[in-house]
Specification:
This protein is α/β, with parallel strands linked by helices. The protein is built from 13 helices and 20 strands. The chain has 2 domains: about 55-95 and about 185-365 and about 405-434, 2-enoyl-CoA Hydratase, Chain A, domain 1 (Alpha-Beta Complex), CATH 3.90.226; about 100-185, Roll (Pdz3 Domain), CATH 2.30.42.10. A hairpin with a 2-residue loop joins strand 3 and strand 4 (about 110-120). The termini are far apart.
Length: about 425
């Protein structure tokens, strides 16, 4: 079909759209005037035809429409987007829980492609990528004006292939390159440990997949006589809403957990706690940071509003909107923001986040001279034991040590994490007050 033919098709399509909108607008509110809509649609059709006729490159008609839709979605908000055929398939692959990539969750913050958090024990995590890092370039290509989906598509790829991302980090004088080797991303969403010399259960939730609540239940039932629970949601980018709601319900027996409000009344919903789902009344501390987003913010913010937990760490990311996937056809779809989340107190977390009760920045626990000597002494003891192991048959001993590391957080590890140390101290205070 020649260009004039395409233009006629476009005008015909526009006429159909206009007639449909004009018909519906007759019963609309006064401000939704049909003539204004008609003028706006006329401007759109003229713009598209002008681009098709005069743009320096010969862009196919479908590509112009795709770019128009993509630009529309991008300008609505940072989380709405157009999923073309490739992006739609990539999203479906990611939903299956195993894909080739770097292991980072990204979002748009103040117009910049920003790392929400690296996924634990993935290539990005091992390469030292941190929450709040701004990705300036991907393999030399600037990310300015790039959508989240476009950026994610560029970062995904075949396992064992290299990629270089250019990072701008707060506190660094200039941007720097990080080379990462892609790998299959497998996410272990929940694991638990106990704190050495403390009767405290530590539960780490890395993301909210469909298994979170069942696994957390299992761990809590294993330690019913613990003095308290530390729920670590640091660098957790979110996930399934129902898992966030049901996780809060394990600790809260009544009241609203979270609500969502949209333009349409059908999008409004309230999620409430039920006494029958409550599993424990143990003292609870939740760890968060700038990498805690979405479902993590719902859990921490709701528990904070209910005064059920002490929140420790840094201000969270601030993603409190609801997106749904609305298919256009079998191969393409829109990711569209349809509502915002509100915590029990009525406050929103969108672009604001959750402010901890106790603000603690990451770092090591300050040591006095005596305690520093004790650490050195324990390190020396460990060194001597390793030397002895070279003389004796130590296969079983090494297995035991490895097993201990998987189930226990040592005091040495606690000393390297002042946020965790603060959480432990908070549990002790809460236990005394019970």
């Amino acid at each position: 079909m020649n260009k004039s033919g395409k233009f006629l098709v476009l005008k015909f399509m526009g006429a159909l759209i206009v007639s449909g909108i004009a018909a519906s607008s007759l019963s609309a509110k006064n401000e939704d005037d049909a003539s204004i809509r008609l003028e706006a649609l006329s401007k759109l059709t003229k713009t598209i035809s002008t681009v098709e006729k005069y743009y320096v490159d010969d862009i196919k008609f479908k590509e112009i429409i795709d770019k128009a839709i993509s630009g529309l979605m991008q300008n609505l908000d940072a989380h709405s987007s157009f999923l073309n055929e490739k992006a739609f398939k990539d999203m479906q692959v990611q939903t299956n829980g195993e894909f080739g990539g770097l292991g980072i969750t990204v979002g748009m913050k103040d117009g910049a492609l920003t790392v929400i958090s690296p996924i634990e024990d993935t290539p990005a995590d091992k390469a030292g990528i941190k929450p709040g890092d701004i990705i300036l370039r991907i393999d030399g290509n600037a990310t300015i004006g790039t959508t989240i989906d476009e950026a994610v598509n560029k970062m995904r790829g075949k396992p064992k292939t290299p990629i270089t991302i250019t990072i701008l980090r707060k506190g660094e004088q200039k941007p720097f390159d990080v080379k990462i080797i892609r790998d299959i991303i497998k996410v272990d969403s929940v694991y638990a440990k106990t704190i050495e010399n403390e009767n405290i259960l530590y539960i780490r939730v890395t993301n909210f997949d469909k298994n979170v609540v069942s696994k957390v239940k299992e761990y809590i039932k294993q330690y019913p006589k613990a003095n308290g629970i530390i729920l670590d949601l640091r660098n957790n980018p979110g996930g399934l809403l129902n898992q966030a709601v049901d996780l809060v319900d394990l600790f809260v027996d009544s009241g609203i957990i979270v609500s969502q409000k949209g333009r349409e009344a059908s999008e409004n919903a309230e999620y409430k706690a039920s006494a029958g789902a409550t599993l424990t009344k143990l003292p609870l501390v939740v760890l968060v940071n700038g990498g805690s987003a979405s479902a993590s913010e719902i859990v921490s913010g709701s528990l904070q509003d209910h005064k059920r937990a002490v929140i420790v760490g840094e201000n969270t990311f601030g993603k409190g909107s609801v997106q749904v996937i609305l298919p256009i056809d079998d191969n393409e779809a829109l990711r569209l923001t349809i509502a915002r989340y509100y915590l029990p107190s009525g406050r929103t977390i969108q672009a604001v986040g959750v402010t901890p009760d106790v603000i603690v920045h990451p770092g090591k626990v300050p040591q006095s001279e005596d305690s520093a000597f004790n650490i050195k002494e324990s390190e020396l003891k460990a060194h001597l034991q390793n030397e002895l192991s070279k003389i004796n048959v130590t296969a079983e001993a090494n297995k035991t040590e490895s097993k201990d590391e998987k189930t226990i957080i040592t005091q040495k590890k606690v000393g390297e994490d002042i946020q965790l140390k603060t959480a432990i101290d908070a549990i002790k205070v809460l236990k005394i007050k019970q």
